[in-house]
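Hi V.,

Quick status before I head out on leave. The structure for the redesign project is tokenized and pasted below; the design run finished overnight.
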């Protein structure tokens, strides 16, 4: 069991990824208006939804998750944290979003999708990190459908797929408005890229950087902010 901000707890399915830097960083990167309706694409056990409910007390989050066990755990996490009125899950393929929700239904979409394209090289990566059931294009297509005009899509991904993500955003009516490059130590290579894309947004890009640890291994202010220390 993981203990989160505001006293919430997160339970995971056996074999599921533990609470990770990518989920914590993405939840800290998100900015929401009051009473935002959020759609979490590929929501797993509800990790991102719980993190956002802890940060934004008036938001509601709907997760879409293909795996039945993870979907059931997300519903369990909502119940034990007293969030059944704010956090829910749909057991479905995210590529079926047009048949699940009306277009423009959500203020915000978020996703921590599989990082690695399916293929021979994907055998080295766990299934949850392979694009077996959906591609990056699928994720952007679903976000573009679900988002209202002016709504934001927040994504975490590998830096080597940044250009691909920008192309996907453009094809589905979104403009990349903010990018955060995350590294673990000052001289480390970038390990994660966080993107904020606006549906119908005008050109204009802001860059940020985030570093979690100093060279001596002590946590930075960025780390303390993300983990509420």
């Amino acid at each position: 069991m993981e203990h989160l901000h505001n006293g919430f707890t997160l339970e995971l399915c056996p074999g599921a990824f533990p609470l990770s830097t990518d989920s914590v960083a993405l939840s800290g990167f998100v900015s929401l208006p009051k009473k935002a309706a959020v759609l979490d694409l590929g929501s797993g056990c509800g990790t991102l939804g719980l993190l956002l409910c802890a940060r934004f007390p008036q938001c509601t989050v709907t997760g879409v998750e293909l795996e039945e066990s993870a979907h059931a755990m997300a519903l369990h996490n909502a119940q034990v944290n007293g969030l059944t009125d704010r956090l829910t899950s749909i057991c479905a393929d995210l590529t079926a979003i047009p048949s699940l929700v009306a277009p423009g239904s959500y203020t915000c979409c978020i996703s921590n999708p599989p990082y690695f394209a399916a293929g021979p090289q994907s055998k080295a990566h766990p299934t949850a990190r392979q694009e077996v059931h959906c591609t990056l294009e699928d994720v952007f297509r679903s976000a573009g459908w679900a988002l209202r005009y002016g709504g934001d899509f927040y994504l975490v991904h590998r830096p080597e797929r940044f250009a691909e993500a920008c192309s996907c955003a453009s094809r589905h009516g979104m403009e990349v408005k903010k990018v955060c490059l995350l590294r673990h130590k000052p001289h480390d290579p970038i390990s994660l890229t966080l993107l904020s894309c606006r549906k119908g947004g005008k050109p204009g890009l802001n860059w940020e950087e985030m570093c979690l640890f100093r060279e001596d291994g002590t946590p930075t202010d960025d780390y303390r902010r993300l983990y509420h220390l």
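Above is the designed sequence. The domain at 2-226 is CATH 3.40.50.150 (Rossmann fold).

G. will cover questions while I'm gone.

Best,
W.
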